[in-house]
Structure formats: structure tokens, C-alpha cells
Fold this sequence. Notes:
It is built from 18 helices and 12 strands. The protein has about 600 residues and is α+β, with helices and mostly antiparallel strands. Among the domains are: about 1-75; about 305-430, Immunoglobulins (Immunoglobulin-like, Sandwich). Strands 4, 6, 7, 8, 10, 11 and 12 form a 7-stranded mixed β-sheet that branches. A 3-stranded antiparallel β-sheet has the order 3-5-9, with no helix packed on it. It is globular and about 85 Å long. The two termini are about 35 Å apart.
Amino acid sequence: MSGGFRDGKLEAACSVALAATVLGLPxxxxxxxxxxxxxxxxKLELVVFLALWLALVLARAGRDxxxxxxxxxxxxxxxxxxxxxxxxxxxQALAAAFAPELRGNxxxxxxxxxxxxxxxxxxxxxxxRAGPRLGTRLMMALALAGSLTxxxxxxxxxxxxxxxxxxxxxxxxxxxxxxxxxxxSTMEYPTTAASFLTASLLASVALVSQRLEPARRRLRAAxxxxxxxxxxxxxxxxxxxxxxxxxxxxxxxxxxxxxKILALPVLRYAAAGVVGSFLVVQGSLLFLAPxxxxxxxxxxxxxIARFGHAAIREIVDxxxxxxxxxxxxxxxxxxxxxxxDGFGVGYRWSSIAKRERSLVREAAxxxxxxxxxxxxxxxxxxxxxxxxxxxxxxxxVVHRDPDLEELPWSFAxxxxxxxxxxxxxxxPWSARARDYMTAIRTERNELPLDLVPSRWDLWRAALRMFxxxxxxxxxxxNFRLLKWKYMDIPKGDDTILxxxxxxxxxxxxxxxxxxSLGWLLLELGRAVARRSAAALSPAEQQLAWxxxxxxxxxxxxxxxxxxxxxxxxxxxxxxxxxxxxxxxQGPGAFDAHRL
Length: 595
């Protein structure tokens, strides 16, 4: 009794930790204030969940014996899915081991895939024991997280300062398409937010069909239908065409399955309402929304210099009184030659709080002449102010004659800088800083600041990588770092991925990796199909409905975007697949499930 009671407590704690992880997916807080940091709230939640699950497995082994516990885990997943998962992980490890460059980065990516597999197994183990109740709870957590994300993002679009301060706790960036601001809410990018909102929308629609007592059913259905509409509107405001099309395909896929999955007619009305709201908002904003006001200052004057690399960042965190070395590029768009004996690059600091600006400081001088139309890349030195605070950093082309002076109309758009001591917690931007950021973004929209590769450029680069190393590719996660060697444009942002799940795998792990991914996705699809065929109770039908819709949306959206690099969408994929890979019935169904 005591062992079973302890196991029950651990199992309940695991379920709570997993639900908390799903609820926290769109709210990843970086404790050290740096991207790519291991110290984030979401990664801490994941560690807690996996540690509790491991404790649960060890407790079972102590009670039933290690052999029995091992056999239980070995029979958890369908045999074909086990083989596909092992093959996928082995190929990623081989691709990392034989990567021609950056093997350390590739090895980290291979380890991350192993973590994803552990999440799948742990979630499937919990789902097998808890039954469809766990799936319902996780879908409710996902629907709630999506509703909160949508509400915060929409509140920010309506000008609510509180929502903007909440967003800045997680990410400070603003993204635009043409003259319209893209909704990203608390998530890192608009496309990432769109992928997550698509999943939460599908969970909300699935939950509409809960069969409860009539009064509770109407109230619950109204709540989740309202959440779905809210998420649909927010999804439209991300302006992600790939996510919008994926959502429509997912809804069409489950509608095609027939009355067994669509158990209640209200699902059809909810789906129609979501699709309608999405199309109305998307159409009205794309064709009827007025352009945002533009600056009438420097943006209307022709610039004589175009900056790239570190000089075009929008927001950066720095420490006071430190010297940094940066790489920037500058293109001469004037009609004169910039001589190496007197021209170079400089910068100026402007304090936002005090409204004071520093003198122009020299960062680097040109080592050779820069004729009109030519570009030079420089290693520059940047000295930060000694006093912490909010600043704007502006780069110039400078010359000595004999004093250091800036060339008129040679400045780059300002960079918003938060200067604070190392280890201090990030602070929300002030109202004045946010106003400056709006003006800076408007100015940046009018300037060709850098050469950003198109999706076709990225896909061509991926195919060139594949042709260069067709068997195992260039190594997991190395596309973003090595793509510039296979493109006809200068090096730029190393965070840009292949913009396609399939091209990313072709480039990074070659034909073998692409085929192993296809086999894994095929077996996951078979698991979802088995789940749908075995769904008898309303809760199982809801989970099957969501599983079919989620997988369909993921595969369609994956043709034009890649999300498994980002922690929230990475975790969502493996957790969802773990829920769906578990047996639909209890332990007695294991033998049939293995065939």
C-alpha cells in the first residue's frame, strides 16, 4: 500500500509538472537576460518534470523489480515507432559526428533530439497510466496558454501599457510586414507565436465537444469557443500565411474524418466561426488597414551610407564601462571616395533619461579606400558609458579634418541599448524608450538596412548543402551558421533557419536524416490513426481529434517554416506526440498495440 501510495503521489506530481510546462510554453523567461541561455523558466520546468518522472520510474523498479520496470517501458510504444525513433536518434548522432565543421554545435543539437525522445517516452508513460484524463488536462492547459498569449498580444495592439510591459519581460522585439506590426506577444518571433496559436486553437475547438451535464456543457462550450475565436484573431494578426493555411488544412482534415470524431454538431459551428473570424481579420487588415504614420525627418533624406551586421541590431543588452569588439559593414552610397587616410566609422551615445548625447567617438578607420558603390567590413571597438541606464547608440561614417567629425546623412538607425551590470535582472523599458523604439522601427522600415535572404534563397542554399554532402549533411543545426557559404549575399543573421522542416533536414543530416525523419513521422501518424480508431469515450475522441488536427497542421506548416529549433514549439511537438503514442486503453491493450 505504501509503495502504491508513493507512486500515486509521484505520478500526480509528474502530471502537474507536465501541465505546468504546457501552460508555460509561451512564457519563457530568460533569467540571465540573454538568448540561447540554459537558465530559462521553461527549461527549469522541463528539468523538474523529467526528474519527477525518473523518480517515478525508479520507485516502480524498487517495487516491482528492475526487469519488470524495464519491460514495462520497452513495451510502452509500438515496436515500429521504437525502431523509427532509435534510427532517427542514431542518424542525428552520426550526422553530428561526421559534420565537416562546427561539430560542437551539431553535437548539442543531437543531444537536444535525445531530450525530445525522453519527453515523448515520459509523456506516453504518464498518459498510459492516467488515461484520457491527462490528455484533456494538457489540452486545457494548452488552450489556456494560447488564450493568455492572444489576450496579451491583442491588448498590446490596442495600446494597453500593461500588456506591453508583460511582453517585455519575455521579449522586447517588434516585427513588421510592410507597414503593419506583426503580433508575436510573449514569444520570440511572430511565426513561432503563429505555430503555437494554431495548436492552442485546435485544442480549444476539440474541447468544445465535452459531454458534460447540459448546463455545464453549454458554459464550457461557450468558454472554449470564445477562446478559439480569440486565438483565431491573434493568429490572423501574426500575418503568418503558412500558419493560417496549416490551420485551415488541419480543420479540413478532421472534418473529413466524419461523425465518429466530430461527435457533436457544435464542433462544425465552432470550426466555421474560427475560420470565418480568421479570414475576416486577415482580409480587413491586409486590404483595408491604413499605413502607420511615417517619420518626416531623416528617413525622407537620401542616406550616403548603408550599415550592416552589428550596426543594424534593434535592441541590445550591454554592461557599463566595458569595451566590446564588433563586426560591422558599411556601403558607400555617396558620390565621393572615402579615403583610408582620414575616413572611418564612429559612434555616439544618447542618454534617454537625461536627453544628453556624447561626442562622436572613433571606432575604426578604413584600411583602404572605399569608392562609391563598394562595401567594407570592419572590426570596431565600442566603449559603453560608465553609468547604467537606457541609451541610443548611433553609428556614423566619420573623417578627421583635423578634428573627428561625422559625415552628414551617414548615420545608421539608432540601436536601443539597455546598459546594466552583469547578473542584474532585466527591467521593462520606460515609456520614453518605447516611443523611441516605435520611431526607430518606422525609420527602419523605409531603409534597405541589410540583405535578408528570401525563402527561395534559403531553399537553394539548403539544396546546395545537400548536393555537397548528400549522405549525412553538414551536421544538425549547422544550416543557420554555414548557409552564407552557399549563398550569393554577404554574411548576416545567424539565427535564420531554412524556413522548411524538410529542407532543414536535407541540408543538416542529408538523405539518411531526411528518410529517418520521414519514417518517424510516418510511425507517429500510424499511432495517431490507431488512437482515432480506438477512441470510444468522449475524452478519447477529443484527443484523437486534436491529434489528427495537430499533426496535419504541423506537417503542412513545416513545408514553409521550421520550429523545432525553438524551445516552446519543440516541447509542444514531443509532448503532443507522447500523448498520442500512448495506448488508447489501459495496460491490457499492450499486446494489440505492439502489432
